[in-house]
TrEMBL record:
Pfam name, any one: TPR_27
Name of the gene encoding the protein in the UniProt record: LOC130494896
Domain At2g35280-like TPR intervals: 50-144
PANTHER family membership: DUF1985 DOMAIN-CONTAINING PROTEIN, OS05G0482100 PROTEIN
Protein name, per record: F-box protein At2g35280-like
């Protein structure tokens, strides 16, 4: 009936030892605090940080919070249409260990025709052994992108067509075989169709 908890995991997560949370805070490290604070609420609604919580977002970015980089990557790439800045922040998110950042970074690289690097990042999610992690990431990424009004880029269509040609998905499917690179095309196609649906 309800959504899988791993997909709908935007509840606030307590960080650190709860027993020591009420103890003396004079030794607390501000940078560590902003690096580790959960921004899962904002990951589900990134546009909130663009207008209402700018200073908080900046503190988290300065401290290297991977969720803050994920949110900033979405805002830069899909709202401000700054590809370079968007990809930079998504990579920081991925390098910081945020798996949704890894997924969206890999997917975004595919969408701008940096296929080899995009495949490398998507492979970090272990999809060859089990696709459930990728599927859960995709559901959360879709939720993050829901509030973004229009982010379809003509380049996504070209990238999808080029990736399909590169891996030969159509011809292999006609002969009854599965394309070795079909996973990447499938993921890019999901993204493309989701972006198209937002235009309607």
């Amino acid at each position: 009936m309800g959504e899988d908890a791993s997909v709908n995991n935007y509840d606030i997560i307590s960080i650190g030892d709860s027993a020591s949370s009420n103890d003396d805070l004079s030794n607390s490290d501000r940078t560590n605090y902003f690096r580790n604070i959960s921004l899962s609420y904002f990951a589900a609604q990134p546009t909130e940080m663009m207008s209402k919580h700018i200073e908080f977002k900046e503190l988290c970015l300065e401290s290297g919070n991977p969720e803050a980089h994920y949110i900033q990557g979405i805002l830069q790439l899909f709202v401000k249409e700054d590809e370079q800045a968007g990809l930079y922040h998504l990579r920081q998110s991925s390098d910081g260990g945020y798996i949704d950042g890894t997924y969206l970074y890999g997917l975004s690289l595919l969408a701008v025709e940096r296929f080899h690097k995009g495949q490398k990042y998507l492979d970090k999610l272990g999809w060859k052994e089990n696709r459930s992690t990728s599927d859960q990431c995709w559901e959360r990424v879709k939720k993050s992108l829901t509030d973004i009004p229009y982010f379809m880029n003509q380049g996504y269509y070209i990238a999808r067509a080029n990736l399909e040609t590169l891996c030969g998905c159509r011809s292999r499917k006609r002969r009854g075989r599965v394309c070795n690179h079909g996973y990447y095309y499938e993921r890019l196609n999901q993204f493309f169709e989701f972006a198209m649906s937002k235009n309607n």
